[in-house]
Structures are given as structure tokens and as C-alpha cells.
């Protein structure tokens, strides 16, 4: 039988993911049981296994989904011109993405330790692919002399950490708008690579 | 009776803290029981309560101890001359401290959510006091025109996040020595504030 739109699975799947994300971010993966996730969704514990084989698969699916979404969203950005323009684009994109998904970012750093080795390897590859996007921008700018970046790999890690850190203090109701925050960080990122 | 040096409590106290730090960093605070900590130390669960009233006190004591040590170590540094020299000093100090205590840094970010409100407030104050050290350096450099920092508070958060991020990738056996890493980050930090 053809799968119908809006089926039970289509509706509950995202609910299961949302509940798991919220509970993992709040209590930590190891402290959360499948029973708690089921309760949060409002289904029987047994029903949860229609959506995910186990808790590890759920964690992996959350972290992979987050990285897939991030890479797809970056891919979908209209590519700016030169390295400087692309660096500004990456800076603003990363801050906006980070602020939009604080719980996913939090568990992406915190729960790597709880991924089984083969799952960890997949997530590491995806993170590497994302970091490569910035590294390529820095390398291309360094080649044309637009940037002064002696070690593009380290500079990549430094810039991403700086930008992701916005999550530790940014509040939507705070004294600065997101666009002002982006502007301040862009100024610092640009200068940090001699652009 | 006078307390003798090397008493049971003197020896086991640090062991309890080390075990708790290791287990919290590995599994997360919520997933670790006092019984597990006792087992890791090699004492009966009941004996643990000679050292700490409960798990929350243990977490608080770890996070507070970490911040107290960090502030004391910074205080003990011979103060460098001008704002640029002090910024370099802070940059190298923060990277070295971060790399020395990766587990404490990890739980300092991750387990804030598990501190009871009054404990959270104490840790937040200590973090604020540490951040103030950098903010004052940036402000004093901005006042003399040594730095171009439109928003010293945000610049403080940006620089600290960048430096702390070393922990996500630095390995002692990696291709760069710690001193080389410090040099690369110092170059980026200096440029990022227009120094």
C-alpha cells in the first residue's frame, strides 16, 4: 500500500526527534531513557520502537540530521564572489545557524563521547566536510594575498570556535540584534585573517 | 586532637574529586551515582559522605575549584606592561590553562545546567570575574588607541571562545607544539582587535 501523506509516522517522527533533542540537551544522553522520551512524546514506550531501533540510533540520527541540514543550507546559499565576500557569508551563515539550533549545537559537542565508533566516524566526516568549506575560503584568500593566514586549518578551527561561542551568551531579547552581533564578529573575523 | 598531615581525608579528598571529574566528564553528571564515584575511588558508598554532603556539592566544588584555581593562577602571573603585552599574556595563559584541564573545562560548559540556582550564581560570578580580566585589557587598549574594539564585552566573549576551542582539536602528540599553537592564536587575536 502506498504511504499516505500525514501518516502517523510522518507526524510522530519529528515529535520523537524533538523530544529526544530536548531531553538529551537538558539531562544528557546517558541519563535519558527511551521510556522518558516516550512519555515526553505521549506514546507508549513500545510504540517508540516504530520510529527508532534504539537510543543510540536516535542520537546518531539527531547529530547526522543536524550536520546534513547545515551542509545543505550552506550549499543552498548563493555563492558570493571573492574570498573576502565568501568569508563574510560564512561568518554570518554560521552565526545565524548556530543561534537557530542551540540544543543541536550543544549536543553535537557534548554527546560525541556517547556515539559508537562507526557513528562517531560518520559525524566526524560531516564536521570535517563543513570545516573544509571555511578552510577552502581561507586557502583561496591566502593564495591571492587577500588574507594573511599561515595555517588555514588552525585558522578554520579558531574562527568556527569563535562564531559558535555566540551560543554561550546570545539572547534574542538582549541589547544587540543578531545582525549587530554578526557585524561585530565579521569585523573581528576579517581582521583576524588579515582581510 | 590536631589534624595530622597526610590524614585519610587529605588523601581521599582529591581522589574523590578526580574520580567525580572523570566520571562526570565521561558520562554526564545526571548519569553518575554516588555509588559509582565511591567504587571508582575504592571506598564504600557510605564513606563518600565524609568528603561531600551530596553529588550537587561535589559538582559545585569541582566547578568552583576550577574557577578559583584559574583566577589565582592568572593573579599570580607577573603583570606585563601595556595592553598589547597583557593581551598576549592572557592569550597564552588561557590556552595553556585550557589544554591542561580539558575535563574541567568540558564539565564547566556542559554541567552549568545541572547546578542549583544559588550554585549557578556563584559560578557565573567567578566566570564573570575572569572575563572581566580580559575585558579590562581590551578596554584599556581601546582607550589608548592600541586596539580597535567597538564592543569590548562582545570581543571578550569572542576571544575566549576562540581560545577555549583549542580543546576541541589540540592533541599533545599532534603536528604543532603548544607554543606554536599559542603563536598562531596570538597572531589572530592581536589582529582581530586591531592590535
What do you see in this structure?
The structure is a homodimer of 195-residue chains. Chain A is mainly α and 195 residues long. Chain A folds into 2 domains: 1-52, Arc Repressor Mutant, subunit A, CATH 1.10.10.60; 54-192, Orthogonal Bundle (Tetracycline Repressor, domain 2), CATH 1.10.357.10. Helices cover 70% and strands 0% of the residues of chain A. In chain A, α1 (8-27) packs across α4, α5 (83-100) crosses α9 and α7 crosses α8.
For the largest interface, the chains and their residue counts are: A-B, 36 and 36 residues
Rg of chain A over CA atoms, rounded to whole Å, is: 19 Å
CATH topology of the largest domain in chain A: Tetracycline Repressor, domain 2
CATH hierarchy: architecture of the largest domain in chain A: Orthogonal Bundle
Major sheet characteristics of chain A: none
Distance between the termini of chain A: 58 Å
- Measured as a percent range, the helix fraction of chain A is over 70%
The total of beta strands of chain A comes to: 0
Query: Based on helices, strands and strand pairing, what is the structural class of chain A?
Result: mainly alpha
Amino acid at each position: 500500500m502506498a504511504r499516505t501523506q500525514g501518516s502517523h509516522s510522518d507526524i510522530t517522527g519529528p515529535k520523537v526527534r524533538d523530544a529526544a533533542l530536548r531531553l538529551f540537551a537538558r539531562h544528557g544522553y546517558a541519563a535519558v531513557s527511551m521510556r522518558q522520551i516516550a512519555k515526553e512524546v505521549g506514546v507508549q514506550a513500545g510504540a517508540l520502537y516504530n520510529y527508532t531501533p534504539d537510543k543510540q540510533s536516535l542520537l546518531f540520527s539527531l547529530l547526522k540530521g543536524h550536520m546534513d541540514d547545515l551542509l545543505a543550507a550552506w550549499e543552498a546559499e548563493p555563492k558570493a564572489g571573492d574570498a573576502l565576500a565568501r568569508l563574510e557569508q560564512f561568518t554570518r551563515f554560521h552565526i545565524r545557524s548556530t543561534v537557530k539550533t542551540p540544543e543541536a549545537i550543544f549536543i553535537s559537542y557534548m554527546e560525541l563521547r556517547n556515539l559508537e565508533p562507526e557513528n562517531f566516524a560518520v559525524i566526524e566526516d560531516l564536521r570535517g566536510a563543513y570545516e573544509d568549506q571555511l578552510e577552502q575560503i581561507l586557502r583561496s584568500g591566502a593564495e591571492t594575498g587577500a588574507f594573511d593566514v599561515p595555517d588555514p586549518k588552525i585558522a578554520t578551527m579558531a574562527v568556527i570556535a569563535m562564531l559558535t561561542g555566540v551560543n554561550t551568551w546570545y539572547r534574542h531579547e538582549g541589547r544587540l540584534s543578531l545582525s549587530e552581533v554578526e557585524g561585530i564578529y565579521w569585523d573581528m573575523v576579517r581582521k583576524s585573517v588579515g582581510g
